[in-house]
Design brief:
Structural class: mainly alpha
Oligomer: single chain
Shape: globular
Number of strands: 2
Order of helices and strands: EEHHHHHHHHHHHHHHH
Helix content: over 70%
Largest sheet: 2 strands, antiparallel
Length: 417
């Protein structure tokens, strides 16, 4: 076993928690996309477009975030988390900054789709992988918890960014809000990425030894080709799509549902987005811990039961049902956070650490597919039926199916590769 006794001037077993904190803070910046529901109506009014078109920047952002992730996983193996984080941070900042400039010069929602969706989304796809892989490699004994805490910043970001964005939109309008946030993200992500590093090969915490067959240890290392030929991969991939779809749809329409259906004022709706972000952020360490404790299969089943019940609950939503709305949307946000801990933890647990960066890059494509489906379902439900509530019917049906998919397919692959 290779030795690495010091990290940040302290024993590595303690110093590694600083890397989790840095990853959390990077994800606070990256996860500002989850505050997009605060931008949704101002974007719709600015460009005079419908619900589907105003949701496209968010959909494209998530799609490019997920789509570039397989590439970022391979690039991470070559240049390491520090350089990749700095490059990604520069692109994230550039995308947000251009989103504040170019749509004013070329006033079209498609300009915002390119600057915010394509450019900023690609930057997040590059930046996101580093902190996750750093946590995974430094915490072979507590992968679920460490990854969950790291990505909690992504889910919890709107607790801060929704308030900031709403205040800026009210004071300096929506385009300047993109500009100012972009400048802040450019500086913060680059600075925070500077200390990121991997442990030396073979490092493990003092006194800890992996137990073959335990929930935290894969029986073998599968490369991407071997992984995609297993039923375990496809079970996890499909479950990740369903879990992502439900949560991302809720995130994209939280404010419009609050103001248009529950009849809350815009300020209260923005406040609730921040509250929901606590559930999203908290769902990551919670479900990461649950995944470590009771296996990915049962963690997934629990998440789908929650999504199914929340979908049924939204069938009874209407003006004045604020408590029901808050409870259901808190569940959707919680479970999305959960899946962004279940999926990376399960990928490492089922298929090993050696190829985990590229393997999870492929797995995260499910998240992008979920984003595309979420925008289609919610946008067309609102444009065709005049209400977002119809969108929860297919979401509930998919969650119900997900319970059975998880139960029968979400298990470690057989050793034959």
């Amino acid at each position: 076993m290779a030795e690495q006794t010091k990290l940040f001037g302290m024993p590595a077993e303690k110093g590694r928690w600083i890397l989790v904190l840095l990853g959390f803070m990077i994800n606070l910046c990256l996860g500002s996309v989850y505050a997009y529901s605060v931008f949704n109506v101002p974007v719709r009014n600015l460009f005079n477009v419908g619900a589907f078109e105003s949701g496209l920047p968010f959909m494209v952002f998530i799609a490019f975030f997920a789509g570039i992730f397989p590439f970022s996983g391979r690039l991470l193996e070559k240049i390491g988390p520090r350089k990749l984080g700095m490059i990604g941070g520069a692109i994230v900042g550039l995308g947000w900054i251009l989103s504040g400039i170019l749509p004013g010069m070329i006033p079209s929602v498609w300009t915002l789709i390119i600057t915010y969706g394509v450019i900023a989304g690609s930057g997040v796809g590059l930046s996101y992988s580093g902190p996750i892989q750093v946590a995974t490699r430094w915490f072979p004994d507590k992968k679920g918890l460490a990854v969950g805490l790291t990505v909690a910043g992504f889910g919890g970001s709107p607790f801060v960014s929704a308030y900031v964005a709403k205040s800026l939109i009210d004071s300096v309008q929506v385009l300047n809000t993109f500009l100012y946030l972009g400048i802040a993200f450019l500086v913060l992500i680059i600075v925070l990425a500077l200390p990121l590093r991997f442990p030396v090969a073979g490092w493990k915490p003092a006194g800890w030894s992996p137990k073959v067959g335990a929930a935290t240890t894969a029986a073998a290392d599968y490369d991407s080709s071997q992984m995609t030929r297993t039923s375990s991969f496809w079970g996890l991939f499909i479950c990740f799509i369903i879990g992502s779809l439900a949560g991302l749809m809720a995130i994209g329409i939280s404010s419009p549902v609050a103001t248009g259906i529950i009849k809350l004022d815009a300020a209260t709706a923005a406040t609730l987005v921040g509250v929901f972000a606590i559930f999203n952020g908290g769902g990551r360490p919670l479900f990461g811990w649950v995944t470590d404790r009771i296996t990915p299969r049962y963690a997934a089943v629990i998440s789908f039961i929650i999504i199914f019940l929340a979908s049924i609950g939204m069938m009874f939503a209407g003006p004045g049902t604020s408590a029901l709305y808050i409870a259901c949307f808190a569940c959707f946000w919680l479970c999305l956070g959960g899946w962004l801990a279940i999926a990376p933890t399960s990928t490492a647990t089922f298929f090993g650490i050696k190829f985990n960066a590229r393997n999870y890059g492929i797995m995260l494509l499910a998240y992008g597919i979920g984003a595309i489906l979420a925008n289609f379902i919610s946008g067309f439900a609102n444009d065709l039926f005049g209400s977002y509530l119809r969108a929860f019917i297919p979401v509930g049906a998919l969650a119900f199916a997900g319970i059975f998919i998880a139960f029968f397919l979400l298990k470690p692959p057989k050793m034959t590769k």
